[in-house]
Design a protein that fits this description.
Beta-Lactamase; flat; five-stranded antiparallel beta sheet; 3 domains; 49% helix; 21% strand; 486 residues
C-alpha cells in the first residue's frame, strides 16, 4: 500500500510540486493561525471578564452609601451613568434578599421592587458572599459583586450583564482573516508550482483538463492519448477508472432513487447522529414535518433534545441509552416534539447503532415518523373506553353477536389498552357463553394478544394449552383455538 502511494506521488512532477508546496503552506499557516486565534481569543475573553469584574466592583463600591441611605434615585443615577459601557445589557442593584432596588433601564424594566428568583440569582444566597461569575458563554457574561458595609456586613448586590456578541464577532473576524491568509499562502504556493511545471509535458495538462471536467460531474469524457510511455499507461488506467466510477455512480443513483421513493411513500424523515462530535444530519422531510426552514436548524443532537416534550425526554433518552449499550437490537421510542409553531406533535423515532470492533456505538441512523393522527385516534378510543356510552356499548355488542354467530365461538371480546404504558387491556364488550359479561382487565404480556400486537397482523392460534401452558384460563374454559386482530 505504501509503495503504491509512493509510486503514485512520484509519477507526476506537477503533482509533487503542487501537493508538496501547497501542503507545506497549509500545515504551517494552519498551525500559525490556529495558535494566534486561540491566544487572541483567550486574551479577549480574559480582558472581557476582568473588565466586567472591575465594573461590577466599582458599582458595588459606589453604591455603598446610597444603599445605606436607601436612596433609590441616587442608585438609578449611578447605574444609568454606565449605559455607555460597551455591550452592557443591564446593571441592577439587589438587596441581600434579591429584591431589585435599582435598574439601569428604568423605562423598560418592570422588575423594580420585585424579587428575582431565577436560578442564577438564587446562587447569590449561597454563602459566603463574594464576587461571582454567574454565567459566561458565547452570548452573555453575567457577573455579581457584593456590597459590604464596613467590609463585613452584606447590604446588597450589584449584578451586571454584558453581551458577548461583539467579542464573538471579533473572534470570527480573526478566524476569517486567518483562513484568508492560509488560502492565500496555499494559492501562492500552487501558482508557483504550476509555473515551474508548465511546459514539461502536454500530456500532463491533458490529464489535468480531463480530471477537472470529471470533477465538475462529466463522467462521459475520456482521455484521447495514444502514447506508449508512462503517460499513456496512466491515461488508459484513468479511462478504466472513469468506467468504474460511471458504473458505480449509476448504481448509486438507482439505489438512492429507490430509497427516496420508498421514504417518500412512507412519508418519513431521516436522521443520522455522529456521536463523536454530536453532529446530526436530518432530511428535508424531517424539517418539513416540524416546520423548520432549511438553514435555521442547529444540527446537533443535544440541541434537538430541547424540542422534545419535557414529560417524554427522560424516557426517550433512557431507551436510547439502552440501545447504545447494546441492550436492544433496535431503538424505538414514541414521544412528542415541538413544532416550529409551538404545538407538540407525536413522532415514532426508530434507529439502529453502528458499532466499532469493540462493540461501541459511534453512529446512529434511523427514521422519524409523524404518528400524531394515530395517537389522537388512540387517545379518543381510550377516552371512550374509560367512560360509559350506551350507544357505543350497544354497537359493540351487536358486532360481537354477529361475530360469535359466524364463528360459533363461545367467547369473544373487543378491548383497548387501559393504561398509557399499554401493559393491560380492558374489554369494551365481553361475550361469555350466550351472555355479555362484566368488564374484564387483563395483562397483555405472554398472551396471544401480545403476539398479534408484536406482529401487527391477525393471528390464528391453535393448541393454546400447549403453547401457553402458564395460562390456566385456557384449560379451565376448554379453549384450544384463538383468533385475535390488533
Amino acid at each position: 500500500m505504501l509503495n503504491s502511494i509512493r509510486r503514485f506521488y512520484h509519477r507526476s512532477i506537477r503533482r509533487q510540486l503542487i501537493l508538496g508546496i501547497a501542503l507545506v503552506h497549509a500545515v504551517l499557516m494552519s498551525i500559525f493561525v490556529f495558535d494566534v486565534v486561540n491566544e487572541q481569543k483567550a486574551l479577549w475573553q480574559q480582558q472581557a471578564l476582568e473588565s466586567g469584574q472591575a465594573l461590577a466592583f466599582t458599582l458595588a463600591v459606589n453604591s455603598n452609601s446610597w444603599v445605606l441611605a436607601n436612596d433609590v434615585e441616587g442608585l438609578h443615577e449611578i447605574l444609568q451613568a454606565q449605559t455607555n459601557y460597551p455591550s452592557l445589557r443591564y446593571a441592577m442593584v439587589l438587596s441581600p434578599e434579591l429584591k431589585v432596588l435599582a435598574h439601569s433601564d428604568v423605562k423598560n424594566c418592570h422588575c423594580l421592587g420585585r424579587y428575582t428568583n431565577d436560578a442564577l440569582s438564587l446562587t447569590l444566597l449561597t454563602p459566603p458572599p463574594r464576587s461571582k461569575t454567574l454565567l459566561h458563554n458565547s452570548d452573555v457574561l453575567e457577573l455579581a459583586s457584593p456590597i459590604f458595609f464596613k467590609d463585613s456586613q452584606l447590604i446588597g448586590w450589584v449584578r451586571i450583564s454584558i453581551s458577548q456578541h461583539e467579542l464573538q464577532h471579533n473572534i470570527t473576524q480573526a478566524i476569517y482573516k486567518g483562513l484568508f491568509y492560509t488560502l492565500l499562502a496555499i494559492l501562492t504556493g500552487a501558482i508557483f508550482a504550476i509555473l515551474l511545471a508548465r511546459g514539461l509535458t502536454q500530456g500532463l495538462q491533458t490529464l489535468v483538463d480531463v480530471a477537472q471536467q470529471v470533477r465538475g460531474g462529466n463522467l462521459k469524457i475520456r482521455t484521447d492519448m495514444h502514447r506508449h510511455d508512462e503517460l499513456g499507461i496512466l491515461a488508459n488506467d484513468f479511462n478504466e477508472m472513469l468506467e468504474v466510477i460511471q458504473s458505480s455512480e449509476q448504481q448509486l443513483y438507482k439505489r438512492e432513487e429507490r430509497l427516496e421513493l420508498a421514504l417518500r411513500g412512507a412519508n418519513d424523515g431521516i436522521w443520522d447522529w455522529q456521536l463523536h462530535n454530536d453532529s446530526m444530519y436530518v432530511s428535508s422531510r424531517w424539517k418539513q414535518m416540524l416546520g423548520i426552514e432549511e438553514n435555521i436548524f442547529d444540527c446537533r443532537f443535544s440541541s434537538w433534545q430541547q424540542h422534545i416534550h419535557p414529560s417524554d425526554l427522560e424516557n426517550m433518552l433512557q431507551d436510547l441509552q439502552k440501545h447504545l449499550r447494546g441492550d436492544t437490537a433496535l431503538y424505538e421510542n414514541m414521544h412528542r416534539t415541538r413544532h416550529q409553531s409551538g404545538r407538540y406533535l407525536w413522532f415514532l423515532m426508530r434507529g439502529i447503532a453502528l458499532r466499532d470492533k469493540e462493540g461501541k456505538a459511534y453512529r446512529v441512523v434511523g427514521t422519524y415518523s409523524d404518528i400524531t393522527e394515530r395517537k389522537r385516534m388512540e387517545e379518543a378510543f381510550l377516552a371512550l373506553a374509560q367512560n360509559t356510552f350506551p350507544e357505543l356499548t350497544a354497537l359493540l355488542q351487536r358486532c360481537l353477536t354477529s361475530l360469535t354467530a359466524a364463528y360459533n365461538a363461545p367467547y369473544a371480546w373487543i378491548a383497548v389498552f387501559s393504561n398509557p404504558q399499554q401493559t393491560h387491556l380492558k374489554t369494551l364488550a365481553f361475550w361469555k357463553q350466550n351472555h355479555f359479561a362484566e368488564t374484564l382487565i387483563y395483562p397483555v404480556q405472554n398472551t396471544p394478544c401480545a403476539q398479534a400486537l408484536e406482529l401487527k397482523n391477525t393471528q390464528v392460534i391453535h393448541q393454546l394449552s400447549e403453547r401457553y401452558p402458564e395460562l390456566e384460563i385456557f384449560k379451565r374454559l376448554h379453549i384450544e383455538s384463538y383468533i385475535v386482530t390488533p
